[in-house]
Amino acid sequence: MYVILVYDIAEEENGTRRQRNIFKICKKYLIHIQNSVFEGDTNPSHLARMKKELMPWIDKNLDSVIIFKSREERWLTKEFYGKDESDVTSNFL
Amino acid sequence: MYVILVYDIAEEENGTRRQRNIFKICKKYLIHIQNSVFEGDTNPSHLARMKKELMPWIDKNLDSVIIFKSREERWLTKEFYGKDESDVTSNFL
């Protein structure tokens, strides 16, 4: 199963802390390809574990996390324009 | 063909202007679902036209635009966590 995860974490209510933790959890399970975008090949149990870790950090009213799932990576093609930010270790770490 | 477009536009070099124009172009062709994330059903000629309009605004060294394509929407499932930002008209307009 191939997954693309995008998040938009609000700054309010200690958002920086939420963002830092959400970033770290996503990075544990997926590949960081752009500012708040991750992708990767995973399986249902890995995905369930990642979501379980993420939930406490997502503010239901302020934040937005979207997970796209495709059964096979080959059903998805990817085009890059501009610079390729894949897995550039950002200042969160 | 189903498309997910994510962008990360740097603030440097008049980034706000680039971001405003990239946002408007994406919004013309796709659905705005989160901060810098768009999706939608489209066709090759529409996609080519969108990319042609986008290119002049993407700074090759500073910005990143990624387009994921799936031949069919049904090959992609989507999960929302937190608030649903789909097509909330943002302050760019």
Automatic annotation (TrEMBL), chains A, B:
Regions that span the bilayer: none
Keyword ATP-binding: no
Keywords: Antiviral defense, Endonuclease, Hydrolase, Magnesium, Metal-binding, Nuclease
Biological-process GO terms, alphabetical: defense response to virus; maintenance of CRISPR repeat elements
Highest taxon in the source lineage: Bacteria
Cofactor(s) recorded in Swiss-Prot or TrEMBL: Mg(2+)
Enzyme Commission code: 3.1.-.-
Similarity annotation: Belongs to the CRISPR-associated endoribonuclease Cas2 protein family.
Role played: CRISPR (clustered regularly interspaced short palindromic repeat), is an adaptive immune system that provides protection against mobile genetic elements (viruses, transposable elements and conjugative plasmids). CRISPR clusters contain sequences complementary to antecedent mobile elements and target invading nucleic acids. CRISPR clusters are transcribed and processed into CRISPR RNA (crRNA). Functions as a ssRNA-specific endoribonuclease. Involved in the integration of spacer DNA into the CRISPR cassette.
Name listed for the protein in its UniProt record: CRISPR-associated endoribonuclease Cas2
Organism: Caproicibacterium lactatifermentans
Underlying gene: cas2
